[in-house]
Give the backbone structure.
Amino acid sequence: MSRHGLAVHGLTVADRAGTVIVDRLNLRIAPGEVLALVGLSGAGKTTVLRAVLGALPFGLTLTAGRIEWHGAPVRAPRRWRRRTVGFLGQDPASALHPLLDARTAVREALPRSARDGGAAERALAGVGLDPADIGRRRPHQLSGGQAQRVALARALAADPELLVLDEPTSALDPAALALAMKRVRRRRGDGRSVTLIVSHDMGLISELADHVVRLDPGQGRETNDAAPRMPVRPEAAGKPGPGDGSVLQVHGATIAQPPGGAPLLSDVDLAISAGEAVAVLGPSGSGKSTLLRMLAGLHPAEHGQATVLGEPLPWPVTERSPAALRALALVGQNPLDALNPARTIGAALVRPLRTLRGLPRRAARAEALRLLATVGLPAELAHRYPAALSGGQRQRVALARALAGGPAVLLADEITAALDARTAGLILDLIDTLRRDTGLAVLAVTHDPAVAARADRVLRVEGGRLHAHPSSHHDDRRSSVDVL
């Protein structure tokens, strides 16, 4: 085995307008080593991974540089990927075939000679999933953390020589995170395996990486360090509910996964007031994301009632009034699913501005640019397609799209998972400002202590129930997060 491993020489990537995204980047990873790419959201980290794999999305072009594997240029990227690479992307649920269950998705990544004999089941068990249960589920029946672990099992199943991981732990609870780190740690020092990681989790980086390369604005030129601005004018957010001021109330809701199956969450009672932030914690697969999807009208409730802004809230989204559609906005865990790949970012933002707020076309276009500025993104991204954005940029676009209709309640699912710490702080500051100035209420599912620490209340999913934490003091809430 050559000692050269993976080498990247003078990698340069530009978009269709000629803007340089990655500029003359050099990398070298020897067998048995782990190299981590870090930097602000939008600095070009995911673009580097895609360029190395010869799989740049439409709109981006490799203008210079070469990739070498064990001292020889990579000349047939697709064949090389199939033979050599295990890849976990930033949107794992999108990467899993919607018609294949988890077991079949993992089996597909194995050599034909290894597809029998329980290898797929062992791969699932190796990332903490029960093959008898999870193995039969399709992607839409998995939580974000479960989908991420299935995708990780798929990437690791064939013990690839080159493992490429893009934010591999963003949706994982601490127990699942420990298992994922254990699997990657086994590759270090084995004299064979090369691992390339992108992550904002500096704890993960410090424990796993032999080398750390930071992408600065000179190498990835899209980084926008400006603080988010505040042009959004949510029209519904300040409207209080009846009586106690609750904008959203849920009584006795039961959720099953799949619908009609065994209950996942039972007897959910919940009330959120204008301007209040409530965080929901719990292990992956416990029903946190499904709760948000139920409130957004995307997953049917088995039982229970809800009201929003004092009016009854039908569970199916197709039966909701225009006011109810505007009142609740979901930022899901997988922003790539929420953005039409055939529409530009500008078009994705203009649509809710016209349909939910009734703005004329010209005003909607101007407001779309202001929304991008709100979440700290440059106006030039309006002309790009989702595949040409980094995961962190897509996450911020999804937030801007959710804010476009002026919601009363923001349903936020792991809203900081794809963001670096600085950008995450700016986004949380933005949301706090909206809460204070417009009365926006927030229900946030998270594994991020920084998100939960800002909440007015913390709820925890345990044993199929939603429990309030006994203390309302900030310090006690912080402690509850630290031991999650």
User: Anything to note?
Assistant: The longest strand covers residues 246-256. The chain is about 35% helix and 25% strand. The domain at 6-214 is CATH 3.40.50.300 (Rossmann fold). The chain has two domains: 6-214, 246-482.
